[in-house]
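Known limitations

Files may contain more than one protein. Parsers should not assume a single record per file. Below, a two-record file is shown to illustrate correct handling: read the sequence, read the token line, then continue until end of file.
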Amino acid sequence: MSLIRNDYVITPYQTGKWILELSGAHFIVNADTKSLIDILSAQQNYTEALEKFNLDFSSTLTENEFTGFIETIFTDIPIFKNSSVETKAPKGFIKFQKKLLSPFLAGKIASFISFLFNKKLFWIFFPVLSLTGIFLTFNTPLSSLKNISPVWILMLYTVTMFLHELGHIAACRKFTGKNGEIGFGIYFIFPVLYSNISSVWHANKQERIITNLAGIYMQLWCMLIFYGFYWITQNTTSLYLAYFITLYSFIQIIPFIRSDGYWLLSDITSTPNLLEKSGTEVKNFIKNPIEWVKETREKKSFLLLYGLFNNAILLYFIITQLVYNWKGILHFPIAILQMVKQMLTFHFSEIVLPDNSMITVVFYILLFNTIMVNYKKIFNNLDKKRDR
């Protein structure tokens, strides 16, 4: 009978580190902690576990010292049988989440496209599709994209968004044998789909990278289909969809917001919680740059540069939009309300997308995120002062 829970999963993450999963929650542990877990899972009582621990680690702990030691080690990891795990909803920055497809049904549907995520096929097709998208972006005259029905665009694009999330599920299931649900939620004020692929923690780095790119990969396939249909029929709606999908896919690669590009960079650099860690490095550098330089390492330098560049890019984008697109920003909420009214009254022919609508949407999302982050910091600081 094990001293700890038996419902955990532990797999290699990177050199000297392991991923421990408990009831859907994931923890990164080092090799020593992994060895301790192995000892606790294999022994019947604390006396036997202590003997094995002292032998393996050349230690001389007493039983009281040993039990206190393991309780300290696992303070934040509920590994013991009477411990409970508070599972977090996937993508916690998405609010009002509602499950659309259960893990079983999502995995079943995704199985039909799992062949696309054969590693060799993926690394052949993804660059080809990306180059096709770049060609499309720079060779599509914007004048040909006028007078397109937003209703058709919205309906067809929603299908590609579903395929985007299904791609993440298919890749995750192929590489780990497990997947979560596909759901619906609200990001800022915008309805979005999400996929729960937390199981991808147990995949290796290449597999996690493919899974991060899987959504964009599926939408690029949609781009190719619409682009091909345009060449056959000369239908400008198909061209607009291909162009719009490509543009959205490339925006998703940007690693400075919580998009696919962010998770991709996080996995390439083996840096979980990239935004938080980079923010910490920026704060430490600002507080004491001399001390930071003395302790600097390659990883810390990367985090600092990412944090500084991230803040600079966001600030530059917000300022330039306020200077050059302030009319569009002010008009955007009114335009959205008009579009909703026209849809509810079935006046689809009168619906017109505002100019620079995608850029304006990005502006509002970034501004909202910036306000919320600083709002939380201010009130957290106030709470700390009250507790003193």
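...continuing to the second record:
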Amino acid sequence: MAVAYSDVTIVVDEQDDLFYTRAALQAHQPGEGRITVQPTPASGSPAALAHDMLYALGKRLAPGPHSPDVWLDSVNTAWLAAAAWTVATGVRHVLVPRAHLLTIRRIDQLLAWREMTGAQLTLLWQKPPRGLPPALARVERRISGRDQFKALLAEPGPIPAHPSFPPAPPAKTGAAATAVAARQSAAPQPGGTEAASMRPGQRGHPCAGALATAQLIQAAPGIEIASEEAAALAALAHPLIAGTLSVLAFTRAGLGSLRFTRDLDITGDVSAVKLHGVGHRHCPLHAVPAWARPLLAGTRAHHRLTGRPPGDSVFAPVMLAEARHLRAHAGRLPRLDLSLPAGALVP
């Protein structure tokens, strides 16, 4: 018997039928917008279930007592990261087997995550339903039988399962790429991004966003990296870390150039990103390689889930405390040559 309430479905499996567990595990298809999260048994970490979801999303926390991912031990930070990756990668349906072993607190965390993401949540409750907590007992629709469970798994979810990443135009290479970069560097920058003589107290024009800039100049092609390095960046658990280091990898810009990068400096299809120099004297537009687009989408989703306005810096939270989390992760990726010296926050 399955019990459904809004976008939350509870599959009550009193007999602990192997069919339901096996079907849930086989349903794990991230490319189709559906993942299966297997809770770690008997973990006392408050953020353990969020870590389990990050793992199901293909993310891996750095190990060790002095891990650069230690800030993901915070419950709110870990669940926000999980929600950002869920939104960015287009996951619309999450299944959790053996949900009857979860504490009420972790069930509340799952429900809060569902509210943030709008995704469909299916919990396999493999014991009698009389133990359902109040938050899961308020149901109005019931579905029973294996066929109904299979039909539930075949549903696409509340909205289309795939994120909007239209194919980016092919990157130019060789002499063509050099010519584009030279034109882009020399071109006047729109919206006050060119150097200007300002009188004291005079208010400058805001720097144009990526979309407006892309209508005037062509983005400089991104630097390609090896597939192994791209995979290492994609596995980073925190979307701000993954996004920041990916931009550094395909632009070779200084970290300070990212300090003022705003939501509106990333195009809607995540095909271009705009960086900013001191005083907006040089604000280059860079094409985002295909491998980096989901990572930068995760950064933007994280920014938007916090409710911050589009004019705020998307990378600001990782610039604090001398960017120690960034530096630690950069040190773990030596082949990318992303060493961040003490003065790296200065563009």
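Parsers that stop after the first record will miss the second one. For reference, the second record is described as follows. Residues 166-205, 341-347 have pLDDT under 50 and may be disordered.
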